[in-house]
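lol forgot to send this yesterday, sorry. struct tokens for the thing we talked abt
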């Protein structure tokens, strides 16, 4: 009698597990830095589709749709930079939605990531329209992830005089408007990159650097 009850209980538990409307074996995965694949088990009671939340060129999945309980193969390239992250979103035909987060460890640790504008205070003449500043970084494979923010001393729209910001492994390039006024103007430029932690439920590390640009007024 005990054996029969145990069998019935196990069967009920198994049936319940396999009838989840949308679930996964893991919602957060940490991947090694080398090239590889990992299998993601999807539990669903209806058809579902999957897509990357953002465009990604280092990872792919072998299928975009599935039915009920299925498996996706997630493939990824080697990571020679810092940790990187991608989110994989799922939606069922019942419009249930959920997301898996995958973080791939990089060859460069967050503590070793380097992003430094060497010149912290720069003065330019009123007629200056281009600046080239030294940038010290080891983020060769992650420069596309570096964001910039320009903050002006004045909030007036016409004072948005830094028109273009770009960077490579050695330099920060700025395109400015000539200053038509007699008074100098000031802007702060900050570069930053967010590096996801290779541990679940841990905040990312923000690596940042900045410089102040003062453009003199016309004489």
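and heres what i got for the seq, position by position
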């Amino acid at each position: 009698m005990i054996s029969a009850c145990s069998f019935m209980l196990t069967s009920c538990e198994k049936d319940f597990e396999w009838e989840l409307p949308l679930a996964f074996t893991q919602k957060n995965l940490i991947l090694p830095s080398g090239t590889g694949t990992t299998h993601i088990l999807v539990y669903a009671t209806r058809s579902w589709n999957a897509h990357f939340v953002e465009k990604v060129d280092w990872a792919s999945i072998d299928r975009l749709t599935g039915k009920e309980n299925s498996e996706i193969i997630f493939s990824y390239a080697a990571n020679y930079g810092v940790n990187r992250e991608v989110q994989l979103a799922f939606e069922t035909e019942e419009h249930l939605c959920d997301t898996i987060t995958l973080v791939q460890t990089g060859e460069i640790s967050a503590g070793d990531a380097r992003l430094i504008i060497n010149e912290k205070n720069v003065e330019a003449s009123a007629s200056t329209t281009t600046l080239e500043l030294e940038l010290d970084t080891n983020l060769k494979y992650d420069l596309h992830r570096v964001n910039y923010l320009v903050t002006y001393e004045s909030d007036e729209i016409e004072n948005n005089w830094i028109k273009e910001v770009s960077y490579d492994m050695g330099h920060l390039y700025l395109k400015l408007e000539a200053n038509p006024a007699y008074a100098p103007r000031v802007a702060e430029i900050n570069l930053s990159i967010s590096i996801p932690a290779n541990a679940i439920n841990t905040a990312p590390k923000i690596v940042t650097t900045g410089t102040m640009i003062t453009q003199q007024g016309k004489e």
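DSSP finds one helix and 17 strands in the chain. anyway ping me if u want another try
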